Amino acid sequence: MTVDELLTSALTLSPTDRATLIERLYTSLDSAPTSKIDQQWVEECDSRMAAVDSGQMSTKSAEDVFANIDED
Q1: Full residue range of the structural domain in which residue 26 is found
Q2: Same structural domain for residues 41 and 12?
Q3: How many CB atoms lie within 10 A of CB 10?
Q4: Buried (b) or exposed (e) across 31-56, using 16+ Cβ within 10 A?
Q5: pLDDT (tens digit per residue) in 18-49
Q6: 44 shares its domain with 18
Q7: Are 39 and 33 in contact (CB under 8 A)?
Q8: Integer angstrom CA distances of residue 22 from 17, 35, 56
Q9: What's the total number of domains in the chain?
């Protein structure tokens, strides 16, 4: 399978499945954090994603965020 064939196939997935695929591909790269700050950001991102996944934290669409900014 070529990259183009894979992309065509991946684009038929739901947005959630595409996001999961992106995450898995990204984590498969050997991109270990190069500094303590990078590692702390990775930990913070992991913590926030876990909070969202468990329902402890909610998200807002960019549209809602920018609408709230425009109101102020």
Answers
A1: 1-31
A2: no
A3: 13
A4: eeeeeeeeeeeeeeeeeeeeeeeeee
A5: 999 998 898 888 666 568 888 899 899 999 99
A6: no
A7: yes
A8: 9, 23, 24
A9: 2
Distance from C-alpha of 41 to C-alpha of 43, rounded to nearest angstrom:
5
Q: Which two tokens stand for residue 59?
A: 């998200």
Judgement on whether residues 52 and 20 belong to the same structural domain of the protein: no
Tokens of 68: 């709230």
Cα torsion 26, 30, 36, 37 to 10°: value is -30
CB 13 within 8 Å of CB 21: yes
Query: What is the pTM (predicted TM-score) of this model?
Result: 0.45
